[in-house]
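Usage

Read records sequentially. Each one opens with the input sequence:
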Amino acid sequence: MSGRRWAAIGFGMAVAAALTGCGGDETSDADLSAEPTRTPLVVSSNQLADYSDEEAAAYREAVSALEHNIKVGLDVYREGLATPAARRALESVYTGDELEDEWEHLQEMDAAGGYLDGSATLVWAKPVRVLVSDSAGTVDVRACVDRRDVEAYQHGSGELASPESKRAVFEVTVDLGSDGEWRVADGEETGTC
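and closes with the structure output:
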């Protein structure tokens, strides 16, 4: 992907880069001000008018999984340790290459002695594409995440910076696993909101 990966809503990569002195992917600062400043997380019925009841339900479950992903990701990065328990926590909210990217970023952060503190909020989400069948599901979501309160620290050194201290738009793919759980499979930062 050309933009910054989802990676704990863009936190892990930026903190690993700040801690190791390496640059990450360039993040597009395209202005998406046409998006509303605050939209309900569960979209209005007219925004889901082109979707079946099953697709609308899948969308709502995917957004709920995205909110859970933000919480779990921040909890893991708050510790900043690449432990077996952290791996299991990441496996509960990520899948595929996105899981491996997350794990790699956490390992880099752990090796550099870094961690995060603060909070992030899913401000709004909109369906882009919803595909469901009897055994599978994929929901593509455009989401605005407010991460202005997240700060990066290094154990023993104090605050490093707030490398991602902004509201960002992400294009995120959430997949339904064979266990019936929705997990983030892919994500890219595409601008600001």
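Summary fields computed downstream for this record:
- Confidence is low (pLDDT under 50) at residues 12-45.
- Residues 7-21+29-192 form a domain with the Nuclear Transport Factor 2; Chain: A, fold (CATH 3.10.450).
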